[in-house]
Amino acid sequence: MPNPELRGRAGASVLSFFLLLLLLAAVPSEAADTVTIDVGAVYASNEGTSIDPALGKIRGKLRSMFNYTSYRMLDRKRRSLSVGETGEFELPDRRSMRATPLPARGDKVRLSIRLSEGPRNLLTTTLGLRRGGMVLVGGPPHQAGVLILIISAE
Amino acid sequence: MDCGTALGKINAKADGLLPRQEEAELADHLAGCPACAADDAAISATGPVLRALTGIRAMRNAPALDAMWTRVRAGIDEGRDTRRRSSWLARWSWIPAAVVIALLALVFSPSRTDRPPFHPSSFEVAVEDVESDTATVALVDKGEDLPTVIWIIEDAKS
Questions:
Q1: Are the Cβ atoms of A133 and B92 closer than 8 angstroms?
Q2: Greater pLDDT, A47 or B104
Q3: Which residue ranges make up each domain of chain A?
Q4: Measured between alpha carbons, how far is A126 from A86 in angstroms, rounded to an integer?
Q5: Of A27, A73, A133, which is closest to B107 when you measure between CB atoms?
Q6: Of B127, B131, B151, which to mutate for an interface test with A (greatest number of A Cβ within 10 Å)?
Q7: pLDDT tens digit sequence for B28-48
Q8: From the centroid of its chain, how far is CA A55?
Q9: How high is the ipTM of this complex?
Q10: Buried-state track B9-45, b at ≥16 Cβ within 10 A, e below 16
Q11: Shortest Cα distance, chain A CAs vs residue B118, angstroms
């Protein structure tokens, strides 16, 4: 006679498997013309001497490029966008960044970037990066220091 | 050796506890004392009789013991099979659940600062155009080893 406990466990396994299939079906697959944009908002100041470990490999780069003593990641957002699709990234102090991937060849990524503070347009630029590349946009004041945006595209 | 001492040694001999030297002394006493010799004969015969009785009883109960052992062994085997099937399921049944939980964590994880640190593969950037309505913009490019920086200077604040 089959053990009810064993049947229960087998049922749970089968249920989990179907849940997994449903989840896989629900997760959208990234197309080849999709660009994943990663935006990190870093607060750079001379308050203290700590450097956020979340900044990873670019900690040393920031120290060698700027005169600030402290770098802290305030926020980080990541969005996958198709070519021509515009994504908005909310930033501290009512600022926002709109990014639109443009058509590009090979492993290049072209991005149209627009940074604004309320109705004011702070920056409009078009960038060409390699996939996995990075650019920094800094300068907007934040508290006792400035905001530096780490923009990378894959 | 008196008869009381001899009786103690006779019992010790029956239990196999009498040293060889004392066994010789006891033999000398038994040779000259028929009463102790009779006790020795009776006590020495008790062990083999008891062993024979135990053997007979064991032979009589052997079929029942065999049947009982057969039932015990069958029970052990059945329990072992059940545990084997159960342990196989228990060993692997967590995997689908773990995968589902990992996927849920991946899909619904907050998109804040808890991702892996930045590890850019390249700092090569081409700035096609740059402009601002309200600020002065400086472009800083210190070579391929350092990231290109677009610096916004608002009203000489930064």
A1: no
A2: A47
A3: 34-153
A4: 13
A5: A27
A6: B151
A7: 998 989 988 988 888 888 877
A8: 12
A9: 0.77
A10: bbeebbeeebeeeeeeebeebbeebeebbebbeeeee
A11: 5
